[in-house]
Amino acid sequence: MAKSEEQFKMIRDQRYEEISHAALKVFARKGYAATKISDITSTANISHGLFYHYFQSKKHMYVSLILNILQLFIETVEEAENRKGTSRDQLAWLTDITFSGSLEQAIDRHLLVMEALKSEFLSEEEKQEFIEKYKISMEGIARIIANGQKEGLFIEGDPMELAIYYLSYSQGLTLWNARGVHPINVSTETVMRQFCTD
Question: Coil, helix or strand for 157?
C-alpha cells in the first residue's frame, strides 16, 4: 500500500472512531428513539454528509456500534485465553482490562447493549446476532474457568454459570461506581477471590 493510501486509511479509520465515540455517548444518554443524526454530527463536529459517508442511516450506525462493542469483547476474551500463564493469570488479566478503561465508556456500552436487547425497533434476527456474539465471549470465559478447575485453581461448579457470575459481578461493580455514592477502586484480587480456591 502506498504511503498516501496508508495515511488516507488512517484518517478514515480515525474519523470512523470519532463518529462512533460520539454516537455511543449520545445513544447511551438519549436512547435510540430520542437521538437524531444531528445530535451525533454536532457531538462529533462533522457534517451530515460525512456521517452518511460512513453509515447508511441512524439504525445502521446503531447496529454497527453494538456489533463493534460485542466484537471487541470477543477479541479481548480471546486475547485473555491465548495469554501465557495459568488460567488464573488469564482471568486476572481480563479483570484488569475490564476496569482499566474509562468508566463512562464502560457504562455507555452497557446501557447501549441492554437497550438493544430489549428494543422493539430491532428485528429478532438482529437481536439474535447480538446474543450469539455475547455467547461467544461467555463461552471463552467459561473455557478459562473450566481449565482453571482442572488446574485446581477455581472453585467447582458449572463453568458457564461461573462465567455468568463473573461477568455479573464485574458489571455490577461498574454500575455501582457509576452511581457515585461511594465509588471504589476495584481490586482484581478481590474480584478473583470469589472464584479462586486459595
Answer: coil
pLDDT score of 12: 63
Q: Report the run of H or E that residue 20 belongs to, with start and end.
A: helix 3-34
Each residue's pLDDT tens digit, 137-155: 999 999 999 999 999 999 9
Q: How far apart are CA 160 and CA 158, in angstroms?
A: 6
| CA distances for 90 relative to 33, 52, 55, 97, 188, angstroms | 39, 40, 36, 11, 12
Residues 190, 192, 193, 197: what is their CA dihedral angle, to the nearest 10 degrees? -170
pLDDT band at 90 (very low <50, low <70, confident <90, very high): very high
Measured in degrees and rounded to the nearest 5, phi and psi for residue 55 equal -135, 140
The pLDDT of 175-187, averaged and rounded, is: 88
Task: Dig out the grid coordinates for 58 from the structure.
Answer: 441512524
DSSP string computed for 53-119: HH-SSHHHHHHHHHHHHHHHHHHHHHHHHHSSS-HHHHHHHHHHHHHHS-HHHHHHHHHHHHHHHH-
